[in-house]
């Protein structure tokens, strides 16, 4: 193992005799870097539908963190997390294709704008109900997108299977 890998391993492992980590701040940074690299790879290899699902998941997470901050009366964290959720919803609005999406895109845009308004007002007046409502709406949309993606995958798989020769559909079993 190279020196760099060895240092990273040492930072993540507890030593014997109750000693502390070699460097807790280095350990935390190393973990954050690995999470960042994982997330980056996940995003770079995701399909458009998977990207939408990831955006929903992130917005939900930021709403949850904002609700925690609200409960703790931590206005700075509340603001930071609500702004992040708002930014993601702005990305969702920007990703809508009004021409190809037709009425669905128009309706989604209206929903997203409503969510933005609720988050801004919730942040302004410290009202957790608005954040909870947006979080619930995001979860519902996430679940709908995930279900649609699953159905599309199943349909595509069935269609691909129908186009295979009979021996391939049976698993290419040879006697």
UniProtKB/TrEMBL annotation:
This protein's record includes keyword Cytoplasm: yes
Primary location class: cytoplasm
Signal sequence, renumbered to the chain: none
InterPro entries, per database record: FliS, FliS_sf
Cellular component annotations (GO), alphabetically ordered: cytosol
Sequence segments annotated as region (Disordered): 15-36
CDD domains associated with the record: FliS
SUPFAM superfamilies, sorted: Flagellar export chaperone FliS
A biological-process GO annotation: bacterial-type flagellum-dependent cell motility
Cellular localisation: Cytoplasm, Cytosol
Keywords tagged on the record: Bacterial flagellum biogenesis, Cell projection, Chaperone, Cilium, Cytoplasm, Flagellum
Family the entry assigns: Belongs to the FliS family.
UniProt-recorded name of the protein: Flagellar biosynthetic protein FliS
């Amino acid at each position: 193992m190279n020196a760099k890998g060895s240092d990273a391993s040492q930072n993540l492992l507890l030593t014997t005799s109750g000693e502390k980590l070699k460097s807790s701040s280095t350990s935390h940074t190393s973990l954050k870097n690995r999470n960042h690299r994982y997330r980056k790879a996940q995003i770079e290899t995701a399909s458009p539908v998977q990207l939408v699902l990831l955006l929903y998941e992130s917005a939900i997470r930021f709403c949850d963190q904002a609700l925690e901050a609200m409960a703790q009366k931590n206005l700075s964290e509340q603001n930071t997390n609500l702004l992040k959720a708002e930014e993601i919803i702005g990305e969702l609005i920007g990703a809508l294709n009004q021409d190809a999406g037709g009425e669905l895109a128009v309706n989604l845009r209206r929903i997203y704008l409503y969510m933005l308004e609720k988050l801004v007002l919730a942040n302004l007046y410290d009202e957790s109900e608005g954040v909870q409502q947006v979080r619930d709406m995001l979860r519902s949309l996430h679940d709908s997108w995930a279900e649609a993606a699953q159905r599309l995958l199943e349909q595509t798989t069935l269609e691909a299977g129908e186009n295979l020769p009979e021996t391939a559909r049976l698993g290419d079993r040879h006697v």
